[in-house]
Write a structure and sequence with these properties.
Belongs to the polysaccharide lyase 4 family. Pfam families: CBM-like (PF14683), fn3_3 (PF14686), Rhamnogal_lyase (PF06045). It comes from Punica granatum. InterPro entries: Carb-bd-like_fold (IPR013784), Gal_mutarotase_sf_dom (IPR011013), Galactose-bd-like_sf (IPR008979), GH-type_carb-bd (IPR014718), Polysacch_Lyase_4 (IPR051850), RG-lyase_II (IPR029413), RG-lyase_III (IPR029411), Rhamnogal_lyase (IPR010325). With about 675 residues, this protein is mostly beta strands. The chain has 4 helices and 50 strands. The strands form 11 sheets. It has a 9-stranded antiparallel β-sheet with strand order 11-12-13-14-28-23-22-16-17, with helices on one face. A hairpin with a 5-residue loop joins strand 7 and strand 8. It is globular. Bound molecules: 2-acetamido-2-deoxy-beta-D-glucopyranose (7 copies). The site of one 2-acetamido-2-deoxy-beta-D-glucopyranose (NAG) has 6 residues, from strand 43. One 2-acetamido-2-deoxy-beta-D-glucopyranose binds next to loops.
């Protein structure tokens, strides 16, 4: 009926791998009983006592499904597509939504386009399947979709290898992808690469993305019965299944997270208690650096692993392939982790356990069980250490410690280029109070070292390329960052930290709030519709800020938005900063340091003491596509403009700086300021 082979049994531990192959002519999908070699062992704590049968693979070729079981859970994958169709765990037949089609439960997709053409959503189904590694401790499976000219137009010119690893003793599976373009392939853009899991909606109701951000979520049908708001993602729940949620807004972008904090998120099922978690052990393969934001989990119930996206950044961070350059990148592995509790402890213990697992995964990175040659192991990687100081003689005569600086390696480029970098690997850390940093586990390659610090404007770049070789331990010693600075500070607005969170973030409309954030000060900006509150707070005339009188936390609206005239037309808005100078020095130019935390299809024009002069004294030109106003982002990409202000433009009487955001076709055009500083002329 069927043949089955035993691949190894190792002494006392009885580690076994069984590879069961149904012959093609086999008529039945039944296989021999599993428990011949079962053994009780205890996991960490007592929550995960399990039956260890090693990793077992069965191929139900008649049903085009591959079944993997390690005694802790069972994973079904379609062949040769490599979609995750079933996850059996803790007595639940399938954690994934069985009401959905097989190919719509756990899958990879990409968004791509020919240059200048429309985008295509492309679900990646493998066309060939292979067992890559098989031993008593793990099984690695590969599902490849290969491109050639015959499938041009249909698929992106990219070979995509979706890998899954199932390990002994781990309740969950690892997923990673190898995206590969041989030399000479046609030009494309690729803006999104991700993995999607859709869980059973009748089981998973509680979502957690951080200690503070967790809650009972609406049902997917609640969105259908609700009222779509200014864009389809945002829906007012008018008749939710759980009436406690009536009157709330649901929008997946309210659950976004910066890469550096986006390490574990997922869902909890109350009965039986089960957690489903996406654990990202490293940020090396994510694009655009540590503070790039992205989606996590949201109503569906859906859990994502976003590898590449334009969210909170715009198409300028999408991957662009030109000139037929050879390219390959390994995304992941990430861990889809499952947990359960037998004793009391409540759902909170599932979240705590998931965090513990996340810490363990991060510690054991780079995984020694990933054998793909383009995934360097620990001893094939290198490290860089150093100390960053800051020299700004107008702040203090001495050097300052690079306190809490973000320091990272990314592919070579200009200072700050890491926030748009998208095809390589990045390695970031945060320095200690004295600016000392140590970056380890770096893949061999050619990098630049970049840094920026909370409290200081601009971007640092170490001017020598850093070449990482296997096992290297580079000591860079003391590095000194001289931030942009022309003269003494005359006044400043905000804190240079690349966000607008220190400014006035209004209360949401009471009828349009997400209750999760109503008591939060930290996440206040994640409410829907805050841009519209500008019109309530400044109904007649635009914001005027008087230096020395106004308080930025109260009087500086977090986003410079357009004005809705309530008949579907929008008007540009002009903000004013009023300040006095005791005297106007003739010794040189003044400098306006203007740092933006976000820009979306904006053109910010700056005028000094003359609101109507054309052209403006300074204009950013049209910039930005990060959509952070609509997406409750509080920041997108960072922009810094150092604007020369000839003394002839200033007077000793009240001066006014007019800030006009001139692009006003819609509600979501605008900027968020990070920080503004007027500097006097240089002192000799
Ligand atoms: C854990 O399991 C061991 C062995 O079954 C048992 O002796 C111990 O009491 C358990 N501990 C807890 C905290 O449940
Ligand atoms: C996996 O597929 C097998 C064979 O079709 C089926 O019996 C089993 O229930 C599936 N398991 C899950 C978790 O979907
Ligand atoms: C591209 O998208 C635009 C806007 O959605 C649409 O009007 C146009 O028909 C599309 N073109 C093609 C070739 O699909
Ligand atoms: C594939 O299709 C694109 C878009 O139509 C076209 O520009 C390109 O030349 C085609 N490439 C090949 C190799 O056929
Ligand atoms: C309505 O729009 C027109 C332009 O189409 C504009 O001139 C007018 O002022 C707007 N009305 C109001 C009340 O804002
Ligand atoms: C002062 O600013 C003006 C206008 O931007 C510029 O042309 C000039 O070169 C600047 N002068 C100095 C000394 O930097
Ligand atoms: C300058 O502006 C401040 C704040 O608006 C105001 O209090 C003051 O009277 C003004 N001074 C002059 C001379 O206009």
């Amino acid at each position: 009926m069927c043949c089955w082979r035993q691949w190894g049994s190792v002494g006392l531990l009885l580690l076994l791998l069984h590879l069961l192959m149904m012959s093609a002519s086999s008529s039945s999908g039944k296989s021999p009983p599993r428990c011949l070699y079962c053994r009780k062992v205890l996991g960490k704590g007592n929550s995960t006592a399990f039956v260890d049968v090693g990793v077992q693979l069965r191929v139900h070729s008649s049903e085009q499904v591959l079944v993997v079981d390690n005694g802790l859970f069972q994973l079904n994958l379609s062949i040769p597509g490599g979609d995750v169709t079933g996850i059996r765990y803790n007595g639940i037949d399938n954690l994934l939504e069985t009401l959905r089609d097989d190919f719509d439960r756990g899958y990879w997709d990409v968004v791509w386009n020919w240059p200048g053409k429309n985008i295509t959503f492309d679900r990646v189904h493998g066309t060939t399947f292979e067992v890559v590694t098989e031993n008593e401790d793990l099984l690695e499976l590969s599902f490849v979709r290969t491109w050639d000219v015959s499938v041009n137009e249909t698929f992106a010119p990219m070979n995509i290898d979706k890998r899954y690893i199932i390990r002994r003793g781990i309740s969950g599976f690892y997923a990673y992808g190898i995206l590969d373009r041989p030399e000479g392939w046609p030009n494309i853009d690729m803006d999104q690469v991700r993995i999607v899991f859709k869980l059973q909606k009748d089981l998973f109701h509680y979502m957690a993305i951080s200690d503070e951000r967790q809650r009972i979520m609406p049902m997917p049908e609640d969105r259908e019965t609700g009222l779509p708001l200014a864009y389809p993602e945002a829906v007012l729940l008018t008749n939710p299944t759980n009436q406690d949620l009536r009157g709330e807004v649901d929008d997946k972008y309210q659950y976004s997270c910066e890469n550096k904090d986006n390490r574990v998120h997922g869902w909890i099922c109350g009965e039986p208690p089960v957690g489903f978690w996406m654990i990202t052990p490293s940020n090396e393969f994510r694009t655009a650096g540590p503070i790039k934001q992205d989606l996590t989990s949201h109503v569906g119930p859906i859990t994502l692993s976003m590898f590449v996206s334009t969210h909170y950044a715009g198409k300028e961070v999408g991957m662009k392939f030109r000139n037929g350059d050879r390219w390959q990148k390994v995304f992941g592995p990430v861990l889809v982790y499952l947990n359960s509790i037998t004793s009391e402890g409540g759902v909170g213990s599932l979240w705590e356990d998931a965090k513990g697992q996340m810490a363990y995964e991060a510690e054991t990175w780079p995984y020694d069980f990933v054998l793909f040659q383009a995934f360097p192991l620990s001893d094939e990687r290198g490290s860089v250490a150093g100390q960053l100081l800051v020299a700004d003689r107008y702040m203090t005569k001495d050097y300052m410690w690079g306190d809490s600086a973000y320091v990272g390696l990314a592919p070579p480029g200009e200072a700050g280029s890491w926030q748009r970098e998208n095809k390589g690997y990045q390695f970031w850390t945060q320095a200690d109070k004295k600016g000392r940093f140590f970056i380890e586990k770096i893949r061999p390659g050619n990098y630049n070292l970049y840094a920026w610090l909370p409290g200081i404007i601009g971007d640092y770049k170490y001017d020598v390329n850093v070449i990482i070789t296997p096992g290297c331990a580079i000591k860079l010693g003391v590095l000194v960052y001289k931030p942009p600075r022309q003269g003494p500070t005359l006044w400043e607005i905000g804190i240079p930290d690349r966000t607008a969170s220190e400014f006035s973030v209004p209360e949401p409309y009471p009828t349009l709030s997400n209750f999760l954030y109503t008591t939060s000060t930290q996440d206040k900006f994640r409410q829907y519709g805050l841009w519209e509150r500008y019109m309530d707070l400044y109904p007649e005339s635009d914001l005027v800020y008087a230096v020395g009188v106004s308080d930025y936390s109260r009087d500086w609206f977090f986003a410079h938005v357009t004005r809705n005239t309530y008949n579907l037309t929008y008007k540009a808005t002009t903000w004013q900063i009023i300040f006095e100078l005791e005297e106007v020095s003739q010794s040189g130019n003044y400098t306006l340091q203007l740092a933006l935390a976000s820009a979306n299809e904006a053109d910010l024009q700056v005028r000094f003491n003359d609101p109507s002069i054309e052209p403006a004294h300074f204009s950013t030109g049209q910039i930005g596509n990060d959509n952070a106003i609509a997406r409750h982002g509080i920041h997108g990409l960072y922009w810094l403009f150092s604007i020369q202000v000839p003394c002839s433009l200033l007077g000793t009487r009240n001066n006014t700086i007019f800030l006009t955001q001139a692009q006003a076709k819609g509600a979501f055009q605008g900027v968020m300021y990070d920080y503004i500083r007027l500097e006097g002329p240089p002192k000799i």
